[in-house]
Write the structure tokens for this entry.
Amino acid sequence: MTKQTLSFGDLTVNRLGYGAMRVCGPNVWGPPKDRAHAHRVLRRAYELGANFFDTADSYGPHVDEDLIAEALHPYPKDLVIATKGGLVRPRPGAWPENGRPEHLKQAIEGSLKRLKVERIDLYQLHAIDPKVPLEDSLGPLADAQRAGKIRHIGVSNFNVAELERARKVAKIVSVQNEYNLDNRSSDDVIDRCEKLGIAFLPWYPLGAGAALRSPRISSLVKKLKATPAQVAIAWLLARSPAVLPIPGTSSIAHLEENMKAASLTLSAADAALLG
């Protein structure tokens, strides 16, 4: 893979990461049917050049972090693992927010234990709890950072105004929002991140698939001799130097397909065709 890199905080990673959520069981609930296969996928992602892995304590719940540690610990020196807290999983299909400080303190400790690390590279508040001021939710993250348990702090599902509030509490190095060809509601967040030197991590980077079947994508697939997914990921890379895509899959074939997008370059005309 062509190694474009992105620096944020004091981290430098290859500019195409891996979202590890999909190696859990169906609907991100429970363990995978084939644990050894999940381990192979995780190892292959790193072999292909993804040295930024994104996970969360709610994936499984707790399963995803365990899988990463089982597959890759002791970790390669250049591997950056980002995890998140602030969503809980009382049952399959449910993702309620829990931004209470006492919960987040416990969540941080749990992630440290499952990932088998003394310090988490990047810890993100997964979402704002409408019942808790975001400043109160970020407090335990800032405390853990001062205690040496968190290296950097990020946020997820934040708009620009919320990001600015968060920046008054702690140094924020990343924002993770839904963003893809079909959903560009975070355009202003990306622009703000680029200006501030903050990484933007687009979750659901391929969307629901409708955009991948559009005539515009089809024309570029033929021109570039690429797959629709590769074109969509390349578009994200072209959108802004602040963007760090993290496509996820439990298939090694799809993983290898996605990672090839790092060597695909869209011209200005190609990018303009996609809007």
